[in-house]
Write a structure and sequence with these properties.
By secondary structure, the chain is mostly beta strands. It has helices at 3-21, 205-210; strands at residues 41-59, 63-82, 86-103, 110-129, 132-149, 157-177, 180-197, 218-221, 229-239, 242-257, 260-280.
Amino acid sequence: MFFRPLIALTFLSLGTATAAAEGQPLVSDTAATPAITAPAYRPVDHEWLVGYGGANVLDTYLSRLEYTGPSLSVTHTTLRPTRRRGDALTRQTMLTAHVATVHSPTDDYDAYDADLWAAAAWHWRLLNRSGVDLRAGVMAEAGAGFTYTEMGGNNPAQGRLTADAALTLRAAYGFRCLGRCMTLTAQTDVPMAGVMFTPRYGQSYYEIFALGQTDRNVRFTTPFSAPSLRLLSTLHIPLGRATLSVGYRADVRQSNIGGLKCHLWNNQVMVGYVRRVFLAR
């Protein structure tokens, strides 16, 4: 009884060795082996930009004078193809922090301005030919900020809170220069409709929040009451494994609502880098 399993195991081993020597499959062809496929990946571009330039600030809630001075910003942008449409539809996210120290025309008082903006956009491809990639889409963005003056008074600061929907146009052109594959990009965003918080002329924040004396302080905005525009153009230059990004940004924010005029104009030179990572679908 002890030798029977041993004899069966010996004949089984000999049969396996014979089949392998004659080139016969060890597993029957009828037993399908599951296919192993490599996972698909989506490229995601992360771009960091630091901007320096000049700012022009006017807020008649604080003063009828225009304040000018240097400004600094940091922007992080991601760009990726969508899961279902691939590269035909891309999704973009953008986060920007901005600060400025501005001075009155008579240089008597200083003011400080700061903003934080977050946006998400979707771009559909319109044209992809001869190195030109043209896309159009929609954007949703929200921002908060303030302007503070050293002039004093009952209302030395003005806060801002805005949300809007915008139309966006993005173009990219790839070309070779000095033996390198460079890319020139340009994007324009134009807010079309939104809402913003603003006090009325002569109304203090104490009246709004402490006394509850509101007066239509949340207003709808359109290109007629708040004409605004953002333009960002960059040149991507590969340097080894890194990609250098240089460019220019113009950010124009304006409003004429509730008897108050406000504009925030920024022109900056941008420098940064782009890093590409790959995510599994």
